[in-house]
Amino acid sequence: MTTSDLAAGARGSGIEDVYPLTALQQGMLLESRLAPGSGVYWVQVGLLLEGELDLGALAGAWEVVAARHAVLRSAVVWDGVAVPVSVVSRRVGASSSAAGWVECGAGFG
After folding, report:
1. Domain total in the chain
2. Residue 104 placed within a domain
3. Over the stretch 68-84, which tens digit does the pLDDT of each residue have?
4. 60: domain range?
């Protein structure tokens, strides 16, 4: 499948846009594919929040942020296409989880 085919198939789907990867993105993809499981270029954020937490409100806030910023709705696609591309979804849902570290005996704070 070519980039043009992917973009043409996006009409009426959940895809907002398709972009070619920059040279830097191509290099990052290559390095991460050469070392699977290494975690290179993988960033995960954890937050320590105090007080009452409304998980629904937090997830809703992240959905608003993602709706406003296309880069947060983007994914790199390399399987099944001639050249890797960045695909921007029209909408993504926020996934979240919460852990009660107090019950685990973790010494935060």
Report:
1. 1
2. no
3. 999 999 999 999 999 99
4. 3-37+50-92
